[in-house]
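Database export, one record per block. Field names are fixed; values are copied verbatim from the stored entry.
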Amino acid sequence: MANLFSHDNLMFMLAGLKLTLIIAVATTFFSVIIGTVLAIIRNYCIGKLKIFGILSIIYIEIFRCTPCILWILIFRFTIKGNPTYLGILSFTLFTSAVVAEIIRGGLNAIPKGQIEAGESQGFGFVRILIYIILPQTFRSIIPSLFSQVTTIVKDTSYLKVVDIHEFMLNTSYVMNTATTVSQILVMYGFVALTYFLINFAMSCCVRHYHSKIRIA
């Protein structure tokens, strides 16, 4: 058993874990930005701008109704470039659609009177969004948003199929040196425990934050 968790193997697996977290953080960052734009366009582009709202709906529905791994494979084998960057791109485009719907739910929960109140104070639409609507929206969707982040962390394991050296792939290489069933089970347990600890820690932080918000 000690040979599986040798210093070299641990460093190799931790390097994969580091890349997993980098991909997850980058995907979350870009997805929140793109998802926010998509949600705003879908919610507020009406009249002459309705075409943009329709395009955002098409984008969201296409990505939400197709599997993430499909886009990972499409981007990996149709576009030349760094595999890690392509993995982040495919994850971001897919996750942005999901995040957009989460944010749209938060936008719809804001009373229309908030916009009217902003207009009565002489605020333009952009200032109303920045100072009134979006702060309240993000405060209300924190639990749902971080639930999606935990999904992103777990779904990085899909990148194994396109030979990106994230945590799951590197652990699989180490697992290939196992010689008994018990060693394989221990490795699977190690993988499960690692993902669990990361996501459970995030869940605890979100619950703590949400409880403070409710008290406030």
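Remark 1: The CA atoms of residues 29 and 158 lie 19 Å apart.
Remark 2: The chain has eight helices and no strands.
End of record.
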